[in-house]
Amino acid sequence: MSRASTSTPLLTPARTQTADGKTRRVGVEIELSGMTFDELVGHVSDFFNADAREESRYVHVVDAEQGPFKVELDSDPIKDLEFDTGELPDMLSDVANVALDLVDAAAERVVPLEIVGPPLALDALPEIEALCNRLRERGAKGSRHALHYAFGLQLNPELPNLEADTLLGYLRAFSLCYDWLKTRQQLDISRKFTTYIGPWPDEYVRLINAADYQPDLDQLIDDYLKHNPTRNRALDMMPLFAHLDEDRVRQVVDDPRIKPRPTLHYRLPDCDIDNPGWSFSHVWNDWVRVDDLAADRERLAAMADGWRSHHEGRLAKLVTRWEQETASWLNPPTGS
Question: Has residue 6 been placed in a domain?
Answer without folding.
Answer: no
